[in-house]
Amino acid sequence: MPEIETIDIAIIGGGPAGLTAALYASRARAKTVVFESGLPGGQIVTTDWVENYPGFPDGISGTDIAELMHRQAEKFGAEFRSFAAIEKIEPHDLDFLLTNAEDEQVIAHSVIIATGAVPKRLNVPGEAEFTGRGVSWCATCDGAFFRDKVVAVIGGGDAAVEEALFLTKFASRVHIVHRRDELRATKCIQEKCVANEKVQFELSRVVTEVVGEDGKVAGIRLASTKGEPEVLLPLQGVFIFVGVEPKADLVSDLCELDGAGYIKIDHNGLTSYPGLYAAGDVTDSELKQVITAAAKGASAAFEALRWIDERLCSI
Ligand code: NAP
């Protein structure tokens, strides 16, 4: 039987948390491998413009920041295995045994989970049926298809409001549909939306159906939370940004999750399982930003390195 490859630190997920963990681990000369189910970058690559990452006073695109972080980690020796989703993580003495879909295995002294989060669904009729035919979860990817068309963005958080602004570059009108009469998004982004004449707010409204015609989105049905009559809004695109769900399934049997499914970590990124760390949007940390993901990735790597050193010194 061939010997199983052994590495120091396996990082699962290549978003800002995983990329920063990879930078710190590889600079410490640990054998570091980032396993990514797709390509490195994470959710940030679907964000048009990041204007709250320090050091970039004019902002930077989500794709560029991910690419720079990737290059920086690679420069110090981190190895990236793309389209290499890990499907199982099991304890293996004090190490971890990782298995992918092809039953290939790796032993890691420590693991950092940085799998991030996925967008939530609305779960209304027509949403699944018209996905890719007018319903989208990525304005950066699909916005250009809606030049001079009418679109709606669903949600009232940072993602919804930022992406609505981005969509005004293409669409003739952008409706922001939010279930309350007050947005959750950061005030300065809200102000930009209010000042943009292409944006129209549909507040205290919830989508009850995505309506289609000839196999494409033709409108959305909106109910009122304040007893107003239902309306049918004719449009061609629906962009859904109603929050995210953590991708923690891989370790749900190994470490503690909170009630919403986020991995519980201490202030250094340690989960409830020794040697297993987590960082970024998959964790129960409150602030979910590129900078907090990066900071938590650095802490997790630092602690994973210390855990490995202490173990090796005690052998
Ligand atoms: P979020 O902050 O959780 O906001 C989700 C929005 O969707 C809320 O307005 C929520 O309404 C609404 N919503 C939730 N479920 C809904 C449903 N079933 N039907 C209709 N509306 C629903 O999520 P997010 O905007 O995706 O952001 C996720 C995290 O990333 C946040 O921590 C955010 O701050 C961060 N982020 C930061 C930036 C930035 O700093 N530049 C950019 C993007 C995202 P309620 O308000 O009524 O709860």
Q: What Rg do the Cα atoms give?
A: 21 Å
The percentage helix is: 10-25%
Briefly, what CATH class of the largest domain?
Alpha Beta
Instruction: Kindly report the CATH topology of the largest domain.
Output: FAD/NAD(P)-binding domain
State the end-to-end CA separation. Answer: 26 Å
Largest sheet: 7 strands, mixed
Structural class: alpha/beta
Bound small-molecule species:
NADP nicotinamide-adenine-dinucleotide phosphate
The total count of strands amounts to 19
How many separate domains make up the residues?
A: 2
**Could you state the order of secondary-structure elements as H and E?**
EHEEEHEEEEEEHEHEHEEEEEEEH
Count of individual helical segments: 6
What overall geometry do the principal axes of the alpha carbons give? elongated
Low-confidence stretches: none
User: Which architecture of the largest domain does the CATH hierarchy give at level 2?
Assistant: 3-Layer(bba) Sandwich
Mean pLDDT level = 95
**What share of residues are in beta strands?**
25-35%
List keywords for this structure.
FAD/NAD(P)-binding domain, 315 residues, 5-stranded parallel β-sheet, binds NADP nicotinamide-adenine-dinucleotide phosphate, elongated, 2 domains, single chain, alpha/beta
Strand and helix map with partners:
Layout: E1 5-12, H1 16-27, E2 32-35, E3 49-50, E4 60-61, H2 62-75, E5 79-81, E6 86-92, E7 95-100, E8 105-113, E9 117-119, E10 135-136, H3 139-142, E11 150-154, H4 158-167, E12 173-178, H5 187-195, E13 199-203, E14 205-213, E15 216-224, E16 231-234, E17 237-240, E18 244-246, E19 276-278, H6 290-314
Parallel strand pairs: 1-2, 1-8, 2-5, 8-19, 10-17, 11-12, 11-17, 12-13
Antiparallel strand pairs: 3-4, 6-7, 7-8, 9-18, 14-15, 15-16
The protein binds NADP nicotinamide-adenine-dinucleotide phosphate.
NADP nicotinamide-adenine-dinucleotide phosphate is lined by residues 52, 122, 154-160, 162, 179-180, 184, 206, 241-244, 288-289.
